Structure formats: structure tokens, C-alpha cells
């Protein structure tokens, strides 16, 4: 996401001819977009995106369980979620 933001910023600076970016070539300005495409492709291919989504879901589930346990007066669970069954 950082590469996409950098690409948008550089594109705007080049388009409005502001600062030293105005003298750069267009291919130099568009390089962060290529980096973002490569990053997203790798993240999807390697399972990084899915793994991070599962971690967020597990944390949300654990937070919900802890809130319910505290509401009935029990001790909350540890921060490490139990391993998933397959």
C-alpha cells in the first residue's frame, strides 16, 4: 500500500510539474506502481494475504471470547489463539 501511495504522490508531482520530480522521466515516476503489482502478486501467491486475514479473524474471535468471559466473571484467555484444526 505504501508503494501505491508513493506512486500517486510522484504522479501528482510530475503532472503538476512541482519540485525535482518535474524533471524526472515518466518511467521513473511509474516505477512504484510496478513495485506494488509485484508485491501484491507475491503476497497472493505465497499466501501472505490469507495468513494475515486469518490472524486478524483469530484475534477478533479471541477478543470477543475474552469480553464474554470478563462479563461473566471468568479469567480471560491468553493472547495466543489455540491452533486451528484441519
Task: Describe the structure concisely for a colleague.
This protein is mostly helical and 86 residues long. The chain has helices at residues 2-15, 26-46, 48-71. The chain is built from 3 helices and no strands.
Which stretches are low in confidence, meaning pLDDT under 50 for 5 or more residues running? Answer: none
Number of strands: 0
- The helix/strand class is mainly alpha
The level of helicity is 55-70%
Radius of gyration, in Å, reads 22 Å
Task: Please state the average pLDDT score.
Answer: 90
Which of globular, elongated, flat, extended, rod-shaped describes the shape?
elongated
What's the SSE pattern?
Answer: HHH
Strand content: under 5%
Give the helix tally: 3
Largest sheet: number of strands, sense, barrel closure:
none
Q: How far apart are the first and last residues' alpha carbons, in Å? A: 32 Å
Relevant terms:
86 residues; elongated
Please explain how this structure is put together.
- By secondary structure, this protein is an all-alpha fold.
- It has a domain at 2-41.
- Helices cover 69% and strands 0% of the residues.
- It contains 3 helices and no strands.
- The protein has helices at residues 2-15, 26-46, 48-71.
- Helix 1 (2-15) packs antiparallel against helix 2 (26-46).
- The longest helix has 24 residues, at 48-71.
- The mean pLDDT is 90.
